[in-house]
Amino acid sequence: MTDPTHIRGEHLLTALSLAASGVPVLPLRAGKVPFGNCQACTGNACGGRPNMKTPGPCVCPAPCHGWAAATTDPAVLNSQEWAAAWREATGVAYHPGGAGLTAVDLDNTDATTWARANLPATLTVPTTRGEHWLYRGAMPSANAVRPGIDLKSSMSYARWVGRGSGTLTALPDTVRALVVRQLAPARPVAVSAPTGGGRCPHRSPAYLDRGITMAVQRITDAASAVHATVFGAFLAVLSTHGRCGCLTDAHTERLFAAAQAKGESARHCADAWANAVHRLGM
Fold it and tell me: Model's pTM, two decimal places?
Protein backbone atom coordinates (compact mmCIF):
# COMPACT_ATOMS: atom_id res chain seq x y z
CA MET A 1 0.00 0.00 0.00
CA THR A 2 1.25 3.48 -0.87
CA ASP A 3 2.21 5.56 2.16
CA PRO A 4 0.14 8.85 2.13
CA THR A 5 2.90 10.58 4.09
CA HIS A 6 5.38 9.68 1.36
CA ILE A 7 3.04 11.07 -1.32
CA ARG A 8 2.64 14.36 0.53
CA GLY A 9 6.40 14.59 0.93
CA GLU A 10 6.75 14.10 -2.81
CA HIS A 11 4.39 17.05 -3.40
CA LEU A 12 6.69 19.31 -1.39
CA LEU A 13 9.76 18.00 -3.22
CA THR A 14 8.04 18.68 -6.54
CA ALA A 15 7.15 22.20 -5.39
CA LEU A 16 10.73 22.90 -4.29
CA SER A 17 12.08 21.66 -7.62
CA LEU A 18 9.71 23.89 -9.58
CA ALA A 19 10.45 26.87 -7.34
CA ALA A 20 14.16 26.40 -7.92
CA SER A 21 13.54 26.76 -11.66
CA GLY A 22 11.60 30.01 -11.17
CA VAL A 23 8.05 28.64 -11.22
CA PRO A 24 5.82 29.99 -8.38
CA VAL A 25 3.97 27.10 -6.69
CA LEU A 26 1.34 26.37 -4.04
CA PRO A 27 -0.29 23.24 -2.54
CA LEU A 28 -3.64 21.91 -3.74
CA ARG A 29 -6.17 20.16 -1.53
CA ALA A 30 -8.80 17.58 -2.46
CA GLY A 31 -10.83 18.70 -5.45
CA LYS A 32 -7.79 20.29 -7.13
CA VAL A 33 -8.44 23.63 -5.41
CA PRO A 34 -6.20 25.87 -3.28
CA PHE A 35 -6.40 25.89 0.49
CA GLY A 36 -8.85 28.35 2.01
CA ASN A 37 -7.74 31.55 3.66
CA CYS A 38 -6.63 31.45 7.28
CA GLN A 39 -8.93 32.82 9.98
CA ALA A 40 -7.33 36.27 9.86
CA CYS A 41 -7.88 36.46 6.09
CA THR A 42 -11.37 34.88 5.92
CA GLY A 43 -13.62 36.95 3.71
CA ASN A 44 -10.56 39.05 2.83
CA ALA A 45 -10.86 40.68 6.25
CA CYS A 46 -7.13 41.37 5.94
CA GLY A 47 -7.86 43.76 3.08
CA GLY A 48 -5.63 41.93 0.64
CA ARG A 49 -6.29 40.44 -2.77
CA PRO A 50 -10.05 41.11 -2.96
CA ASN A 51 -11.83 38.26 -4.71
CA MET A 52 -8.38 36.85 -5.52
CA LYS A 53 -8.24 39.17 -8.57
CA THR A 54 -5.19 41.25 -7.69
CA PRO A 55 -2.24 40.68 -5.36
CA GLY A 56 -2.97 43.08 -2.54
CA PRO A 57 -1.03 44.25 0.52
CA CYS A 58 -1.64 41.11 2.58
CA VAL A 59 1.57 39.27 3.42
CA CYS A 60 0.00 36.43 5.39
CA PRO A 61 2.57 33.66 6.07
CA ALA A 62 -0.06 30.95 5.39
CA PRO A 63 -0.90 29.73 1.85
CA CYS A 64 -3.82 32.17 1.55
CA HIS A 65 -5.57 33.88 -1.37
CA GLY A 66 -5.39 31.10 -3.93
CA TRP A 67 -3.09 31.73 -6.88
CA ALA A 68 -1.66 34.82 -5.19
CA ALA A 69 -0.02 32.57 -2.56
CA ALA A 70 2.22 30.96 -5.18
CA THR A 71 5.89 31.48 -4.36
CA THR A 72 9.40 30.50 -5.38
CA ASP A 73 10.80 31.08 -1.88
CA PRO A 74 11.97 27.74 -0.41
CA ALA A 75 11.85 29.23 3.11
CA VAL A 76 8.13 29.88 2.68
CA LEU A 77 7.47 26.47 1.15
CA ASN A 78 9.30 24.80 4.05
CA SER A 79 7.81 27.06 6.72
CA GLN A 80 5.78 25.93 9.70
CA GLU A 81 2.80 27.93 8.41
CA TRP A 82 2.75 25.85 5.20
CA ALA A 83 3.49 22.51 6.86
CA ALA A 84 -0.14 21.65 7.63
CA ALA A 85 -1.14 22.36 4.02
CA TRP A 86 1.57 20.06 2.66
CA ARG A 87 0.45 17.31 5.03
CA GLU A 88 -3.05 17.48 3.52
CA ALA A 89 -2.05 18.32 -0.04
CA THR A 90 -3.22 16.11 -2.90
CA GLY A 91 -1.25 17.94 -5.57
CA VAL A 92 0.82 20.96 -6.59
CA ALA A 93 -0.33 24.01 -8.53
CA TYR A 94 1.70 26.75 -10.19
CA HIS A 95 1.05 30.32 -11.31
CA PRO A 96 1.75 30.32 -15.08
CA GLY A 97 1.76 34.11 -15.41
CA GLY A 98 4.25 34.39 -12.56
CA ALA A 99 6.60 32.15 -14.52
CA GLY A 100 6.05 34.10 -17.73
CA LEU A 101 3.91 31.34 -19.22
CA THR A 102 0.43 30.78 -20.62
CA ALA A 103 -1.23 27.37 -20.34
CA VAL A 104 -3.88 26.55 -22.93
CA ASP A 105 -6.04 24.05 -21.03
CA LEU A 106 -7.62 21.63 -23.53
CA ASP A 107 -10.29 19.75 -21.64
CA ASN A 108 -11.42 17.16 -24.19
CA THR A 109 -10.63 15.51 -27.51
CA ASP A 110 -12.49 18.10 -29.60
CA ALA A 111 -10.54 20.93 -27.98
CA THR A 112 -7.25 19.12 -28.58
CA THR A 113 -8.16 18.50 -32.21
CA TRP A 114 -8.93 22.20 -32.68
CA ALA A 115 -5.59 23.20 -31.13
CA ARG A 116 -3.62 20.85 -33.38
CA ALA A 117 -5.28 22.39 -36.41
CA ASN A 118 -5.02 26.04 -35.36
CA LEU A 119 -2.16 26.61 -32.88
CA PRO A 120 1.60 26.31 -33.35
CA ALA A 121 3.24 23.30 -31.76
CA THR A 122 4.77 23.84 -28.33
CA LEU A 123 5.50 22.07 -25.04
CA THR A 124 2.58 19.69 -24.43
CA VAL A 125 1.59 18.04 -21.15
CA PRO A 126 -1.00 15.21 -21.09
CA THR A 127 -3.77 15.62 -18.48
CA THR A 128 -6.52 13.35 -17.24
CA ARG A 129 -9.01 14.53 -19.87
CA GLY A 130 -6.92 16.35 -22.45
CA GLU A 131 -3.70 18.37 -22.67
CA HIS A 132 -2.02 21.55 -21.47
CA TRP A 133 -0.18 23.47 -24.20
CA LEU A 134 2.41 25.81 -22.66
CA TYR A 135 3.67 28.96 -24.38
CA ARG A 136 6.37 31.44 -23.39
CA GLY A 137 4.66 34.73 -22.51
CA ALA A 138 1.98 35.89 -20.06
CA MET A 139 -1.47 37.31 -20.82
CA PRO A 140 -4.87 37.80 -19.12
CA SER A 141 -6.48 34.51 -18.11
CA ALA A 142 -9.95 33.58 -19.36
CA ASN A 143 -12.30 30.63 -19.12
CA ALA A 144 -14.32 29.06 -21.92
CA VAL A 145 -12.71 31.03 -24.74
CA ARG A 146 -13.84 28.13 -26.92
CA PRO A 147 -15.73 24.95 -25.99
CA GLY A 148 -13.46 22.97 -23.67
CA ILE A 149 -10.65 25.55 -23.71
CA ASP A 150 -9.48 27.76 -20.82
CA LEU A 151 -6.45 30.06 -20.78
CA LYS A 152 -4.45 30.10 -17.55
CA SER A 153 -1.78 32.73 -17.13
CA SER A 154 -1.91 35.95 -15.09
CA MET A 155 -3.95 35.84 -11.86
CA SER A 156 -4.68 32.12 -12.23
CA TYR A 157 -3.26 28.73 -11.29
CA ALA A 158 -2.86 25.44 -13.10
CA ARG A 159 -2.37 21.97 -11.66
CA TRP A 160 1.12 20.58 -12.16
CA VAL A 161 0.87 17.26 -13.98
CA GLY A 162 4.41 16.88 -15.30
CA ARG A 163 6.99 18.44 -17.58
CA GLY A 164 5.54 17.11 -20.83
CA SER A 165 7.34 16.96 -24.15
CA GLY A 166 8.16 19.23 -27.05
CA THR A 167 9.82 22.64 -27.32
CA LEU A 168 8.41 25.68 -25.53
CA THR A 169 7.54 28.35 -28.12
CA ALA A 170 6.49 32.00 -27.96
CA LEU A 171 2.89 32.87 -27.18
CA PRO A 172 1.18 33.28 -30.57
CA ASP A 173 -1.29 35.99 -31.54
CA THR A 174 -3.87 33.26 -32.24
CA VAL A 175 -4.01 32.55 -28.49
CA ARG A 176 -4.10 36.23 -27.51
CA ALA A 177 -6.93 36.77 -29.98
CA LEU A 178 -9.11 34.24 -28.15
CA VAL A 179 -9.32 36.62 -25.17
CA VAL A 180 -9.78 39.72 -27.32
CA ARG A 181 -12.86 38.15 -28.92
CA GLN A 182 -14.20 37.05 -25.54
CA LEU A 183 -13.77 40.52 -24.03
CA ALA A 184 -15.73 42.30 -26.76
CA PRO A 185 -18.92 43.65 -25.13
CA ALA A 186 -22.39 43.50 -26.61
CA ARG A 187 -23.27 46.53 -28.72
CA PRO A 188 -26.31 47.57 -26.62
CA VAL A 189 -24.02 48.92 -23.86
CA ALA A 190 -22.83 51.79 -26.08
CA VAL A 191 -23.91 55.25 -24.97
CA SER A 192 -25.95 57.59 -27.10
CA ALA A 193 -26.77 61.23 -26.45
CA PRO A 194 -29.82 61.91 -24.30
CA THR A 195 -32.95 63.17 -25.98
CA GLY A 196 -32.31 66.71 -27.16
CA GLY A 197 -28.56 66.23 -27.06
CA GLY A 198 -26.09 68.04 -24.86
CA ARG A 199 -23.17 70.43 -25.15
CA CYS A 200 -20.20 68.79 -26.82
CA PRO A 201 -16.98 69.47 -24.86
CA HIS A 202 -14.65 67.86 -27.39
CA ARG A 203 -12.36 70.40 -28.97
CA SER A 204 -10.93 67.61 -31.13
CA PRO A 205 -11.26 63.82 -31.44
CA ALA A 206 -7.94 63.58 -29.57
CA TYR A 207 -9.54 65.11 -26.46
CA LEU A 208 -12.08 62.29 -26.25
CA ASP A 209 -9.42 59.68 -27.02
CA ARG A 210 -7.22 60.98 -24.19
CA GLY A 211 -10.15 60.71 -21.81
CA ILE A 212 -10.74 57.08 -22.75
CA THR A 213 -7.01 56.32 -22.52
CA MET A 214 -6.83 57.83 -19.03
CA ALA A 215 -9.83 55.76 -17.89
CA VAL A 216 -8.34 52.56 -19.33
CA GLN A 217 -5.04 53.28 -17.55
CA ARG A 218 -6.85 53.94 -14.27
CA ILE A 219 -8.54 50.53 -14.49
CA THR A 220 -5.36 48.76 -15.59
CA ASP A 221 -3.35 50.22 -12.70
CA ALA A 222 -5.89 49.19 -10.03
CA ALA A 223 -4.17 47.06 -7.38
CA SER A 224 -7.30 46.61 -5.25
CA ALA A 225 -11.01 47.55 -5.16
CA VAL A 226 -11.36 46.71 -8.83
CA HIS A 227 -15.18 46.94 -8.78
CA ALA A 228 -15.08 50.46 -7.33
CA THR A 229 -12.30 51.54 -9.68
CA VAL A 230 -14.19 50.35 -12.75
CA PHE A 231 -17.36 52.11 -11.65
CA GLY A 232 -15.43 55.31 -10.90
CA ALA A 233 -13.74 55.22 -14.31
CA PHE A 234 -17.05 54.64 -16.10
CA LEU A 235 -18.63 57.47 -14.11
CA ALA A 236 -15.79 59.85 -15.00
CA VAL A 237 -16.01 59.04 -18.70
CA LEU A 238 -19.78 59.46 -18.82
CA SER A 239 -19.82 62.67 -16.78
CA THR A 240 -17.35 64.30 -19.18
CA HIS A 241 -18.08 62.66 -22.50
CA GLY A 242 -21.48 61.00 -22.27
CA ARG A 243 -24.02 63.75 -22.92
CA CYS A 244 -23.19 64.76 -26.46
CA GLY A 245 -23.42 61.40 -28.19
CA CYS A 246 -19.76 61.21 -29.22
CA LEU A 247 -19.05 57.94 -27.40
CA THR A 248 -19.06 54.96 -29.75
CA ASP A 249 -18.99 51.18 -29.42
CA ALA A 250 -15.22 51.32 -30.00
CA HIS A 251 -14.82 53.48 -26.89
CA THR A 252 -16.91 51.22 -24.68
CA GLU A 253 -15.11 48.15 -26.04
CA ARG A 254 -11.80 49.61 -24.85
CA LEU A 255 -13.21 50.31 -21.39
CA PHE A 256 -14.90 46.92 -21.05
CA ALA A 257 -11.81 45.06 -22.30
CA ALA A 258 -9.65 46.81 -19.69
CA ALA A 259 -12.12 45.93 -16.93
CA GLN A 260 -12.44 42.30 -18.00
CA ALA A 261 -8.65 41.96 -18.20
CA LYS A 262 -8.69 42.79 -14.46
CA GLY A 263 -11.14 39.95 -13.83
CA GLU A 264 -14.50 41.70 -14.16
CA SER A 265 -17.22 39.75 -15.95
CA ALA A 266 -19.14 41.13 -18.91
CA ARG A 267 -22.23 41.27 -16.69
CA HIS A 268 -20.40 43.26 -14.01
CA CYS A 269 -19.19 45.70 -16.68
CA ALA A 270 -22.69 46.18 -18.07
CA ASP A 271 -24.12 46.67 -14.57
CA ALA A 272 -21.43 49.20 -13.64
CA TRP A 273 -22.05 51.12 -16.88
CA ALA A 274 -25.82 51.13 -16.32
CA ASN A 275 -25.37 52.27 -12.71
CA ALA A 276 -23.12 55.11 -13.81
CA VAL A 277 -25.69 56.21 -16.41
CA HIS A 278 -28.40 56.12 -13.75
CA ARG A 279 -26.24 58.03 -11.23
CA LEU A 280 -25.78 60.84 -13.75
CA GLY A 281 -29.47 60.92 -14.70
CA MET A 282 -28.70 60.28 -18.34
Answer: 0.64
8 Å CB contact between 164 and 196 = no
Q: Please give the sequence-ordered ranges of beta strands (E in DSSP) within the chain, or none if there are none.
A: 25-29, 33-34, 91-94, 101-106, 123-126, 131-136, 142-146, 149-152, 158-159, 169-170
Contact 97, 153 (CB under 8 A): yes
How many of the other CB atoms lie within 10 Å of CB of 94? 25
Handedness of CA 194, 197, 203, 206 (dihedral sign): positive
Per-residue pLDDT of 36-77, as tens digits, reads 888 888 776 776 654 444 445 577 889 988 888 899 999 999
Q: Round the average pLDDT of the chain to a whole number and report it.
A: 82
Strands 149-152 and 142-146: antiparallel
Average the pLDDT over 180-208 and give the result.
Answer: 53
CB 53 within 8 A of CB 226: yes
Q: Which amino acid, residue 40?
A: A
Q: How many CB atoms lie within 10 A of CB 30?
A: 9
